[in-house]
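User: Sequence in, structure out. Go.
Assistant: Echoing your sequence, followed by the structure tokens.
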Amino acid sequence: MDLDGVDADFMYNDLFKSNTTFNATFDLDQDITAGSQHAIFVLSGCKIMTMENPSASEGLTESTVEIKPQDVSAREFTSTAKTTLFNPF
């Protein structure tokens, strides 16, 4: 995960070290013109289980974070008009 100093400090001190629960949304959008590969994941009751400090090999703004949610829901967006010809299902 790319984090600047302020975001990394917040995640490490306010969420990880204090064992605080939080909610998160991941919006994964590969290519809007393809009509596929777009999903939104909503995570609730999340806790950061592990968080490694950035290392020189990963880059100074790269952090590895393990997030464990209590609940996950997702919604995918597929344009059938753009994928019907290529849809194997």
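User: And one key feature?
Assistant: The chain has one domain: 5-79.
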